[in-house]
Amino acid sequence: MSDPSTPTVQTVCAACGAVNRLPRARLAQNAFGAKCGRCGGRLLEPHPAALSEARFDEFVGKSDIPVLVDFWAPWCGPCRAMAPALDRAAERLSPDVRVVKVNIDEAPALASRLRVSSVPTLAVFSRGRELARTSGALPESALTDWVRRAASQA
Ligand code: ZN
After folding, report:
1. In the chain, how long is the greatest CA-to-CA distance?
2. Does the active-site annotation cover 13?
């Protein structure tokens, strides 16, 4: 993660796109109680948040917290089959990692720009930089281990 001497951590609200700063101590003690300064919604949640194409660059680029992105599609059987594993992985990884889902049918330009050619594709970003990517569904433990390894390079 970011420099631990910094007293605040910057992260972005998945719902409204506002950039929020959280005291690092708050993140350690009561991360899931943190509310967005603009929309009042929960900023960090222990389950995947839907992320739109319009918010993607800001969300992954302005977050000090590494972001796991699940590129999926409603017609993709393996994506649906993996959803419960992704939910459990999000519980285990939050708040160290933010977990979001991008429906590529609703984000064609983004999928094309990032060359996401199959679903599910999983990618870990840190401040907009892609650290790792894998295609195909993973079971929960393999997914969690892979994300932690990738995020440790942030
Ligand atoms: Zn918000």
Report:
1. 45
2. no
Distance CA 143, CA 120 (A): 12
Q: What is the Å distance from ligand 1's center to 82 Cα?
A: 28
Active-site hit among 13, 16, 36, 76 = 76
CA distance 38 to 117: 35
**Cα dist from 53 to 37, 56, 63, 107, whole Å:** 22, 5, 16, 5
Q: Among this protein's residues, is 39 annotated catalytic? A: no
69-123 pLDDT, tens digit each: 999 999 999 999 999 999 999 999 999 999 999 999 999 999 999 999 999 999 9
What's the gap in Å between 16 CA and the centre of ligand 1?
Answer: 4
